[in-house]
Structure formats: C-alpha cells, structure tokens
Amino acid sequence: MKKSILTIALSFILISLAQAADPAFIAAMQKQLAAKATIETFEQSQEVTNGFMRIAEAAESEWLPFYYAALLKTEAAFRFDIDKDKSLDEALELIKKAEKIAPGNSEITALNGYILMGKISLDPAGRGQTMSPEAMQLFGKAINLDRENPRAVSLMSQMELGMSQFFGTGPEKACGMARMSLELYKKEQAKITEEYILPTWGKTQADQVASKCN
C-alpha cells in the first residue's frame, strides 16, 4: 500500500517537472516576457497581457501566465491614464485564478498585496484604514511562505515606509527591510539562467525605499 502511494506521489512529481520544463511553454513565456520589457503604451500592455492569457488557456495547470497578466494589469494602473480601479480589480480576478492553481505560493500572495497597495493609493483616506492591514498581512504571509522572496520583503518595506511617513515615526524598520530585500535580489540574480521565467521584478522599488534611508 505504502509502495503504491509512493509510486503515485512520484508520478505526480514527474508530471509536474515535465510540465515545468516543457520547451514550448518556456519559449512562449520567454517571448512574452521579452515583449513585456518593451512596453511603452497601454495598447502594448494590453497586447502582451492578451498573449499571457492565450498561454494560460493552453497551459491550464500553470500559474505563471495568470500571474504575469495580473502584474501587467497592476503596472498599467500605475503607468497609464486608464480606469485604474477597473484595471486593479481585473488584476485581483487574475491573481485568484493563479492562486487556485498554486495555493500557498509566496509570489502570488505578494502580488495580491501589491494590487491592494495600488487600490489604497487611489483613495488613501477612504481605503487605508481597511485595506492597509490586509496588504500587510499578505506581505507577512508571503515572507513566511518564502523568506528568500525579495519582492515580499521589498513590498513590505514600501508599506512600512508609507506608514512611518503617515504616522510621523522613524523609517528604521522600512530601511532595514529594504536593505534585506536588496541582498535577496543579489542572491536571486545568481540563480537566473536563459530559461528562467519566474518573477524577478521589484528591485527598482527596493532601491527607491533604500535611497530614502541615506
């Protein structure tokens, strides 16, 4: 019986590894990530987002296409003159789909908090009191899920800095977390290869927080 359970478990692991290493999936993701790096207009952002959604339809067991589509929706809300609330709400729906595929994922959890940060920034007075604790909770959860995730630590540092500025307290905690995230980004950089398609964004935000600590 134990042998059968182990065999089944091993089969699932091998299937997962095979899917993760699928050359067609990796190539498609790399193409969209390269296109993402060149976005200058909202129309281009939509086009790349649609590309990730097509990959999501073809690779139903992969969370990354939904994740990047949600990230693009979030970045579009920060960058372009659009209906920002609508874009962020769409990002939240996409991140729910990613989380359904990969529950308990640190990257997904951190991005969920980042989307809430975007929502808060649109109406700090009306949303800060209710949404800020939720965002902080998500960042804390993301860190606990993976203490090597630089985005989780960096985003937490941004929230800490904002709160310190709002309440008029010192930025020491935010600065410490920002410096920690920069060290984690260095470690992450050493892992990146040509086929690396996991998230690597966020260092610019960490640099911005750290620059306020000098």
UniProtKB/TrEMBL annotation:
InterPro entries: TPR-like_helical_dom_sf
Signal peptide: 1-20
SUPFAM superfamilies registered for this protein in UniProt: TPR-like
Keyword annotations of the record: Signal
Protein name as annotated: Tetratricopeptide repeat protein
Organism: Algoriphagus winogradskyi
